[in-house]
Amino acid sequence: MDLAQAIAQPSVDWHALSPDIVLAAAACMVLIADLFLPEESKWLAMPLSAAGILGTLAAVVSLAGEHRTTLGGAVEIDTFALVFKGLFCVIGLIVLAMSFGYFRSGRYYQGEYYFLMLCSLLGGVVISSARELVTLFIALELISIPAIIMTALRKADVKSNEAALKFFLFSVLSTAVMLYGMSLVYGITGSTKLDEIRSSIASSADEPLVVLSVIFVVIGFAFKISAVPFHFWAPDTYEGAPSPVAAFLSTASKIGGFVGLLVLMFRAFPEVADTWRPAFAVLATLTMTVGNLIALRQQHIIRLLAYSGIAQSGYVLVTLALIDPSRPEANAQALESAIVYLVIYGIMDLGAFAAAVAFARKTGTYFLSDYAGLWRRSPVLATLMAGFLLSLAGTPPMAGAWAKLFVFAAAINSEVYWLAAVMGVNAVIAAWYYLAVVKRMFLDSPEVDEPIEVPYLLRATMGVAAFALLAVFIYPAFITSLADRSLL
Amino acid sequence: MPDSGVFEYLAAGLRGAVSRTNALPNCAFCVLVFGLSATLSYPRGSPRSCSHIATSGAVPAVPRDYFSQYITIGIFVLVGLGLVGVTLQLARLVRPNVPTREKYTTYESGIDPIGRGWTQTNVRYYIFALLFVIFDVEAVFLFPWAIVFERLGTQAFIEMLIFIAILAFALLYAIRKKMLEWL
């Protein structure tokens, strides 16, 4: 058979790929527009990007309820894919709102920044529907590589360079480990499609090579989602990066890693779950406990959020430690709780970052001691910040409470009581440092009385995010009904 | 897949090539390599006979087990390193030794080295190297496309135009950012 015969024309379902295509086109348009815009109107790249993301969101909505497979099974559109594509779009919009003032006043390569952000977001949109190892891997790299450049955008700042270098080195290392694991998986099963891997890996479940390959893949992902003991890069990178980029890394990049992990673990490797489930239990326990304990000592809001983000990853990892294909009901509940957690986490973490950015825009400081008496300087900002922190802590009346409760219930339902107990203890530790900030904002007296003006765009975005969290707390079926239908 | 690994094919190919020449030194070498590997990785069984001389009914002498195939590689590496050492020492024994000053310069038959080892290169060369990547990637995809172009028809043509347009954006970006001007 010659080469010409080997290459057949694939049938492509363009509608199924439309969100990805719209976003890619938008990224190109932003780059081109930036080239021809004069310096004083470069900020127009931001509304253009927002329009691109809204277009992507429209494409996602147009696919609602569909189940399509295309590109030979490499891409699959189901509710799971659409929920996360939508979530990435929302994250993109919030990060755009946070970036606008920051990059406009700093004159940091606005056009390139928005282009890179859209590219990274495209990685997230692609990974949501990727059901094949190579597609999954490329999407994951598409998230990471532009994010490294975004981290280094403040060229003159040594901390920004340090942050980008650390991120780059850890990213490369994790990629190498993950890719080796994936090559071993391909070597064992002879396929890169997740469904074929699932059916053929079960027969070789006893081989040590299977354990080795899955563990390598998991370690690679553990770097991306900053799970302990692979978390060292995260706080330094978040602190040094421009703070909207830190927010992006902490949500889009992390959720992208989790989406890949969920798809792999629930779709490709469930038949050998007995071999790797304990690894996730250990990883989850370490991540929750170490993240929370170190967060207790933080004096810098971005570092506090970084460690809190690490701890939050731990809660999602709990759901991966519950995977058991022999008990479909408990298995489905674990996946559902993971989806609910990630969606709520994305919004509340971005909200907290947005509040920190809004505070720093007027005061120029990120230290927690300067938050004292914020209630008297800006009641709006203090209330919003308190709302997001309460949500992260998992206390009513915010949606974070449901997120933790669902994971907790899933652990109980799977009869993994000790993990539920670890989670409960950690929720208490975490509440302490979140509430300490709230107490400082509302009860302590400020050193300076100067009121803080929050830009309208940020105020509106944070208001909508806080309202959404409140609404989900009151009526959780908004999200649970979606998660219910998005089983893999 | 693992039970008919790449190494086995490699070794089978090597044995085939060797058996056609049938020369004695090659044979001794193969006996050393394959015999050793077979002995090490099959501790229970006896080492097989030199399979490449017996042309018919050749049983793969290389083990089927995945990890023990690395023993073959290890032995190849050791023999390869040993060969370098042995030939260098052998040459030392037979050659005359007449040191002159010219022979001790860094490049005996080149230009005399001037200056220090650390030199500065204009950073703009790096930009050109990056720009080269655009065309490099383009060529990688254009060649297979060109081979099957007639079979694939209009759709493939349009797809390739889109691909080239996206790459052209990169070039346009470089031009607008004045990367192609030598200052």
Question: What is this structure's SSE topology?
Answer:
The complex is a heterodimer of chains A (488) and B (183).
Chain A: H1 3-6, H2 14-36, H3 45-62, E1 68-70, E2 75-77, H4 79-106, H5 110-129, H6 133-151, H7 158-189, H8 194-201, H9 208-224, H10 233-240, H11 243-268, H12 273-295, H13 301-320, H14 328-363, H15 374-377, H16 379-393, H17 400-413, H18 417-442, H19 456-474, H20 477-485
Helix pairs in contact in A: 2-3, 2-5, 3-4, 3-5, 4-5, 4-11, 4-14, 5-6, 5-11, 6-7, 6-11, 7-8, 7-9, 7-10, 9-11, 10-11, 10-13, 11-13, 11-14, 12-13, 12-18, 13-14, 13-17, 14-16, 14-17, 14-19, 14-20, 16-18, 16-19, 17-18
Chain B: H1 6-21, H2 24-41, H3 69-94, H4 124-147, H5 149-152, H6 154-176
Short key terms for the protein model shown above:
heterodimer; A: about 500 residues; mainly alpha; two-stranded antiparallel ribbon; 20 helices; 2 strands; globular; B: about 180 residues; 2 domains; 6 helices; flat
Describe this protein's structure.
The complex is a heterodimer of chains A (488) and B (183). Chain A contains 20 helices and two strands. In chain A, helix 2 packs antiparallel against helix 3. Chain A is mostly helical. Chain A has a domain at 269-488. The mean pLDDT of chain A is 91. Chain A has a two-stranded antiparallel ribbon with strand order 1-2. Chain A is globular. Chain B is built from six helices and no strands. Chain B has two domains: 2-93, no CATH class; 124-176. The model of chain B is unreliable at 20-28 and 41-63 (pLDDT under 50). With 183 residues, chain B is an all-alpha fold. In chain B, helix 2 crosses helix 3 and helix 4 runs antiparallel to helix 6. Chain B is 61% helix and 0% strand. The A-B interface holds A 3-4, 7, 9, 28, 31-32, 35-36, 187-190, 209 and B 1-2, 66, 144, 147-148, 151-153, 155-156, 166, 169, 172-173, 176-177.
